[in-house]
Amino acid sequence: MCGRYVLHGPQSRLREHFDLRECAEWQARYNIAPQSEVLVIRQRPELGRVGQRVRWGLIPRWAKDAAIGLKLNNARAETVAEKPSFKSSFERHRCLIPANGFYEWQAVEEGGKTRKQPWYIRPAGDGEFLAMAGLLAAWKSPAGADVVTTCVITTTPNGVMAPIHERMPVLLAPGQFDAWLDPASRDVEALRRWLRPAPDAEITAYRVSSRVSNARNEGEDLLAPA
DNA sequence: CCAGACGTTGTT
DNA sequence: GTCTGG
DNA sequence: CCAGACGTTGTT
DNA sequence: GTCTGG
After folding, report:
1. Residue A23 a catalytic site member
2. What ipTM does the predicted assembly reach?
3. Which of A23, A73, A154, A226 is most deeply buried (CB count within 10 A of its CB)?
């Protein structure tokens, strides 16, 4: 889960909501897919929270081949603290991935065939942003280029998501941002306990057009209820 | 000890 | 780099 | 995540 | 079935 999402800003509200000191340029996007550039929020010593563009698809430091990043879009909350691919990132390189919402596909049986119905999930009420829990890794390519990548941590579904899909991204509340982002937070057990499904009251979901299923499609109208 | 893998999702 | 399997 | 491609040889 | 591209 969480293989497609939305970040349209506006950037001024993004900076405000996440209390960013600096933020990279970001063009509104309504169909962000793995392997593309995404905006992450990290905590820099002496500077504070900054927004930075990185590639979605985690390439661990030790990887000899960047191809592993094609598979690591998500990390399971249940095992992220132990898996070799994620362990050191979980201990020292946590980030937030800001989103206005994300998509999930629901398998629907129709006349003996399975159709994939896309849903859009956004904050309930007048909330503007969700904060997905993510990891970062810095990798040096054989050519010597520094490549920073990210992935989204997933967990079991809450009551809103359960009818739609078996997984959902871990969503953190503003009160958790500081401790999650602080590289000095080394209490892995305490951090791991935060990786739980969001309360039902925090999100709402509605059906959208299957046009979102093709990652080439873009635009605000992908959010229209269908 | 060394060698080899290192992951998630969804579907069957 | 670190863990698992042999 | 889903959609769409998935190949070689020899010639230009 | 599996990999790549978006």
Report:
1. no
2. 0.88
3. A154
